[in-house]
């Protein structure tokens, strides 16, 4: 229940950049991204080697492709780190909530333990009293 509230509050307080970072990190860490990027690379290489042959816009060793890949990596890494930092903050908040819940549960268990000890003590006194009466 408290975790749902945390998620709702977090979603409501996200900036546009935070939402974009989460979406990019989700997509960048998916098989869809990996497979589509491999497809893009294969198409790029195919076009430049086979289709355009002598008039290729990025002939082998594909310097433009290397530049594009470097730019994507340079931009994607910090965006993913932003998303991970936000996730880490959410995890810390969840841990704080879990700690409070565990402390409350421990307090309740201690209270129940005291009540149980009192009942056991009263039961033993009652049994002792009954044994004394029967003697």
Description:
The chain has 135 residues and is an all-alpha fold. It has one domain (2-134). Helix content is 87%, strand content 0%. It contains four helices and no strands. It has helices at residues 2-12, 16-28, 31-51, 63-134. The chain starts with a helix and ends with a helix. The mean pLDDT is 87.
User: Shape, please?
Assistant: rod-shaped
Measured on Cα atoms, how large is the radius of gyration?
A: 32 Å
SS class: mainly alpha
How do the SSEs run, as a string of H and E?
A: HHHH
Strand percent estimate: under 5%
Low-confidence parts: none
Question: Quick check: average pLDDT?
Answer: 87
Give the CA-CA distance, first to last residue. 58 Å
Considering DSSP H and I runs of 4 or more, what fraction of the residues is helical? over 70%
Total number of strands? 0
Feature tags:
rod-shaped; 135 residues; single chain; 4 helices; mainly alpha
Topology overview:
Elements: H1 2-12, H2 16-28, H3 31-51, H4 63-134
Helix pairs in contact: 1-4, 2-4
Q: What would you say about this model in short?
A:
The chain is mainly alpha-helical. The protein has helices at residues 2-12, 16-28, 31-51, 63-134.
